[in-house]
Amino acid sequence: IQSRTQVLEMAPLNRQELLSALQEQGVTEKKARIAIGLTDSVTTVVDWCQDGWFDQAVAGILQWYHQVSQGKMMAFVGVQTDLVKLGAHNRDHQLVLLDLAALIWRATLLAANGIEDQDRFHFVEELTAIKSVGQHYSMADLLTVSQLTLATRHYLEQNISFQNILEELTIRIV
Fold first, then answer.
1. Is residue 63's pLDDT more than 90?
2. Global confidence as pTM
3. For residues 95-117, b (16+ Cβ closer than 10 Å) or e, as one string?
4. 118 DSSP assignment
């Protein structure tokens, strides 16, 4: 039996409209810029921001990124003390954290390639640090790290523990 409903494809909001819609909902521009790198759903972003979880997630990933990009093994400890707590028992939060890690390494790859257009970056306030990291890695290394971060979602779908995924990622990057 075929349904009599028709599927309509809706074009997503453009970046500026999405930023405006998020700001109308009380989401700061900084959070909105990062969030639109992860989803185009206003309600999803508002839900993430309700209890301060998204702020903590961004701060945790930034701290991890700064440590791991400098070759500091303290990032390994930070996985357990910070990131695992942020993703504790919530698969959606774990996916967002993994996507944030991929997003910031994507920004590093863009910066290393000389991209200057700030609209292509989601972590605009961290751009100076991101560019600095991009200068310390070879293009091959950045591509490898980007591929590693993109593969993390696949590992989570295979029921590998969130903590193990992040710890292995940390060790492989450092």
1. yes
2. 0.84
3. bbbbbbbbbbbbbbbbbbeeeee
4. G
